[in-house]
Amino acid sequence: MDYLNAFLCGGILCAIGQILIDRTQLTPARILTGYVVAGVLLSALGLYEPIAQWGGAGASVPLTGFGHLLAKGVRKAVAEQGWLGVLTGGLTAAAGGITAAMVFGVVMALLCKPGEKR
Questions:
Q1: Cα gap 118→84, rounded to integer Å
Q2: Residue 61 has what DSSP assignment?
Q3: How far is CA 8 from CA 14, 56, 68, 75, in A?
């Protein structure tokens, strides 16, 4: 059942993004940024945690999950360090994912010899 929930949650999030692309004049970059902000706002309101519990990886992998992770990290850092946590919490919480993305990007660039499309 966990697989089905993850598929449904991720599919719904992707379908919303596709509808935004098809029906609005928003650029993909603005939609992606909106997803991160929506994840932060839903997390701040306490609405994203139940979605993440139900959807599992379907809720944590999309950009809304990244926003949720940032909000959780800031909340935890503020509780531990005070106002300094506002600046450090998000980066501390997301450091593993950011580092992995950078390392895998460099490895793929070395293996695949990227270049401009013609």
A1: 47
A2: S
A3: 10, 10, 19, 28
Measured CA to CA, the distance from residue 76 to residue 74 in angstroms comes to: 5
pLDDT in tens, 40-85: 999 989 999 999 999 998 888 888 888 888 888 888 988 988 888 8
117 in any annotated domain: no
Alpha-carbon dihedral 41, 21, 61, 29, rounded to 10 degrees: -70
Q: Is residue 77 part of a domain?
A: yes
Q: How many CA atoms lie within 13 A of 33 on its CB side?
A: 5
Count CB atoms within 10 A of the CB of residue 109: 10
118 assigned to some structural domain: no
pTM reported for the whole predicted model = 0.76
Residue 13 is part of which domain span? 2-112
38 within 8 A of 70, measured Cβ to Cβ: no
Among residues 20, 6, 3, 115, which one has the least CA distance to residue 55? 6
Please report the pLDDT score of residue 5 as a whole number.
Answer: 93
